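Model: You mentioned two targets. I'll fold them one after the other.
Researcher: Yes, keep them separate.
Model: Target one:
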Amino acid sequence: MELHQLRYVIAVVDAGTFTAGAQTVRVSQSGVSTQIAKLERELGVTLFDRTSRRVSLTEEGRSLLPAIRQALSGIDAVTDTANAIRGVMTGSLRVGAVTGLTWDPLVDALAVMHDSHPGVDVRLIEGLSDDLIRAVRDGGLDVAVAGWAGAAPADLLTRVIVEDALCAVLAPDHPWASSTTLDTARLLTADLISLPVGTGARGALDAAAARIGMTATPRWEVTTPAQVSLLARRGIGVGALSENTAAGFDGVVAVPLADTAARSSLGVVSRREPSAAAQAFRSLLGL
């Protein structure tokens, strides 16, 4: 088993195809394919299902992936320590953020890392909160700014940025706009505008619906809070967002839900043993 073979596996997993993975490691596709096939023969298992256009891990591959990432992380830790002794930071930093996030401390920290540590390859990936948290857990991301409903992920380092209640987002002339609170059941009868499953606000909405034996079935499912606000402002439905998020948009009214347990959190997550670059990034975020 060779170290570069393990890195090729991770490159293909993260990129989604052998071609894109090969470009990441700057090796020919045939070279990557040959080395991974050699590794599979040595391990006695097939790591990838190659029957579709976008390759995916087999069940055996999914089982081995955490161990492969852990092995590479251990090797990188040796390099990080040696670089720290020399006063140099190298390596990579993969940062995740929820789609559409506008949080200045994140952008500021990315800029400082980019300017102050040119030896660190810094990348930013946007996505759904659940996917980002899963990627941190699996090693695909080092740090992520993500949302969740309920308890924070117990197996990761977490720091809450903001935690607030879910609210209904309405056009100013909507009949419910003058309400002080809104029942969850009433909200669910509206033409609901919601973020997709995997976001913190949607998790809070689904949990609130489950508490009263109902299911949230949005008529309008969009990817960013801004889109929720735009649709609600035009009166074609009622949005569901966290209060702090809703407060950032003009032309809409936010009405809290009567269910005070309908809450979500936005925070920073990372593994419990972050790399030197990840720890430096966390420090820039004030963690």
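Model: Target two:
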Amino acid sequence: MMLDLNRLAMLRELETRGSIVAVSRAIGISPSAISQQLAKLEAEVGMKLLEPVGRQVRLTQVGIDLAHRADEVIRLLEQTEAELEQRSTRVQGIVRFASFSTFALRYLPDVLRRMARSHPDVVVEFTQVDPTDALNAVTRRRADLAVTDEYPNIPRAVVTEMTRTFLSRDPIEVYAPVPVQHPTELAKIPWIFEPAETDAALWATRACREAGFEPIVRFTSANLRIHHSLVQAGEAAAFLPRMLLGTPDALLDIPEHRVVWGEAELYRDVYAVTRRGGTIRPAVAALLQHLKEVVADATAETSTTE
């Protein structure tokens, strides 16, 4: 009996995500196609891997055990591929890269250009995800390298099998739809935050309370360009990372009414994350090096223009 690796990977995703719909969203295959593939895997194994729970399904104990073993198999295959790449006389292969949208908007084009020049045989595949999903993508081996952010006093849980590389400290500035003399004046102005329970929203709420007021959060969006547009339209106040306002194409003008927040430093830290030992692959190591260089160059350029 030879088990199909792709079907095993789907089983592993189901064990991690909990529903076929969630797996479908993650890997871009229809729920019906996933169900068909898992049914074929059951036929290959000759035992029940799934059981119905209402309108959903859950893994049997055999399914859970097989999903964990699939993870071990995929990890071993990755290690073997990395060792073979190290022996090759040229750097090649596919590197799967994931990051949040603001980082991609600011840095991805330059990173891809540099990779194409230095390592033309490496194919970089990119996926936009939110910071939490970026960590999960690396942990579950859907990405080789991811970029995530972290806000002060709200640390992200990073498992021991992962390695973080600091890339930059991204200052965050406050902009209002009208001129204000003190942050407490923002208590009567509507705000736009990222979705509730995200690290960004928790941090923003804390920052407002420490400044002496409770924010009126009337709008929520994960897209920071919408935050910027509402500030520009005079509809809301917002916390805007400087990274967003530093896009090379200058699509986003700096809003007019910047708020002086006081002595508190507003920022988020940006990290690259790989699986521990992931940079043993020359292609992954090359992409990480370009990420560090591109961010460092942009930071230096910003410093000289201020």
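Researcher: Noted. Anything on target two?
Model: The two ends are 65 Å apart (CA to CA).
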